[in-house]
Please model this.
Amino acid sequence: MTRVKRACWYVVLFAIPYGGVLWAALYNRMEPALFGIPFFYWYQFAWIIVTAVITALAYFNKV
Amino acid sequence: MNWPALIVFILLFTLVTVVGFVAARWRRGDLNHINEWGLAGRRFGTVVTWFLLGGDLYTAYTFIAVPALVFGAGAIGFFALPYTLMVYPFVYVVFPRLWSVSHKHGYVTASDFVRGRYGSGLLALVVAITGILATMPYIALQLVGIQVVIAAMGFTGSGLVGDLPLIIAFVILAAFTYTSGLRAPALIAIVKDLLIYIVIIAAVIIIPMQLGGYAHIFSSIPADKLLLKAPSGGNLGTYSAYATLALGSALALFLYPHCVNGVLSASSRKVIKRNMSLLPAYSLVLALIALLGYMAVAAGVQHDPAYAGWFKQYGPNFAVPALFLHSFPAWFAGVGFAAIAIGALVPAAIMSIASSNLFTRNIYKEYLKPNATPAQEARIAKLMSLIVKLGALAFILFLPGKYAIQLQLLGGVWIIQTLPAVVIGLYTRWLHRWALVLGCLAGMLLGTGMVASQHFTSSIYPLQVGGLTVPGYAALYSLPVNIGIAVILTVILRAFKTPEGMDHTTPADYEYDTE
Model:
C-alpha cells in the first residue's frame, strides 16, 4: 500500500473511538457492572485502552 | 494553620524554585532572545516534549475542576474522559502538518502560519487576539487550583485572609514565569510529574482502601448522579451535552497558543506522533483522578463541619483538597497540595508565555514596532505575560461560577473559532481570508452570546430544534455557524473576484520533515 493510502485507512481506524463514545445512549446504564463498577464507567475506560492501541499501531506502522 | 502540610509544601516549592533557576542555565541560550525564552530554541525531543504536552493536560483542570464537577454534578463530569480520548487521534493526523509548514517557514505561532497561508494580516491579527483572550480564563482555572490548595493549608475567613490564597497564587506564578521562560516549566514538568504520580498512586489505592473499595464508592453515590440524565419530554437531557462537551473540548485543545507552542517546540514530526501515541496513557490516569470526585462524596467531606467554611467559600472546587485533608496524614496532604499547585503553576506559566509570544510577534512587532530589537521583543513578551495573568485574575474576580471548569469551557468557546483558519487551512486554501475573518467574528459573538444567556455560569446552551430541546456545548454550536458563514461569504467574495492574497506555502511544505 502507498503511504497515503495507509494514512487514509488509519483515519478510518481513528474514527472508531469517536463512534464508541459520542452517543451516550449506547452506554448510559448500570449493568453489566464489572467488579461493582457500573457499565457507564468501565465501558469508557475500555475505550481508552482501544484508542491507545490504535495510536500505537499507527505510530509503529509509520503512518 | 496546618503546619505539617505547609512546611512540606514550602519545602517542595523551594526545590522546584531551585530547579527553575538551574533551568535558566540549562542548554544555555540567550534568554533575552524571544526564540530562546519562548520556544527554548526548538530543540525538545520526545521525553521533554512528553512532559511539556502532558503538562497541558495534567493541570488544575484534571486535579481540581473535573473532580469538582463529578463531585457536584455526577456523571456529566466524566465528559473529560471521551474528551481526552478523542483529542490524540485528531492531533496525530492534523498537527504534524502544522509542525512541517512551521518548521519550513520559521513560524512560531498559529497566527504566523495563517499570515503566511492566506497573506492576510487581518486574519492573523484575529487569530492572535482570539488566542490571547481564550488563554486568560484557562490560566484563571490554574490560579483557582493553586488558590484552593493554599487555602486548604489553613487560610479561611473573610477579608484579607480570605483573599490571601489568590494573591499568593498570583505572585508565585508571576515571579516564576518572569525569570526563566519556557525552559523552567519544561524541566520542572519532570519534577512535577514525579510528584503527581506519587500522589495519584497514593490517592487511587489508599483512599479507596479506606472507603471499602471502588464498588463501595460507586454504591454510595446517589443513583441519579451515577448516570447521565436520560432524554425525556422533548429534551435530550445530558446526552447531547455530554457528547458536545467532549467533542468541542477535543477540537479546541490544541488550538490554544500554548499547545501550538508545545507542538512546535518538538524537534521532528516523529516526536509529535510518538507523543500522541503515548499520551493516551494520560487519559487513563485522568479517569482515575476524576473518580476522586466520587471518593469525596463517599468520604462524606461535604457534611463534615471541619470543611464547611471552605466549601462555603470555594464550593465543589474544594472537593479534592478536602478529600486529601480527610484521608492523608497532614504531611502527605502537603505533598498532594504541592503536586496540585506545581501542576497548575507549570501549565499556567506555559500558557502565559505562549500568549505573550503571540502578542509580541503578531501584534507588537507587526503593528506597533516593526523594527524592535530582539532584546525589546523579549522585554515586551515578559511584560505581556504579566498582563495576561492580570486578565486571568479578572476572570476569577468577575465570573463567579460554581465550577472552575466553566473557565476552561469559556476559553474553548473562543479558541475553537480559529479552527477554520488554522485546521482547515492546513488542508485547503479554498476559504477566502475575509470570509474566515467574518466567520470567526460571528462565531465569537454567537458563542459568547450563548454563554451570556446562561449568565456565564454554564457553557451549555439549550438549543431549540423544532419542538426538541438539545442542550449542548456553545463551542460546538457556534462553530458550524462560523464555518457556514465562511463558506457562503467565500462563494460571494469569489464571485466578485476579491483579491485572494498570496500563499507563501507549497503543498510539499506540509509534509516536510527533518529526519
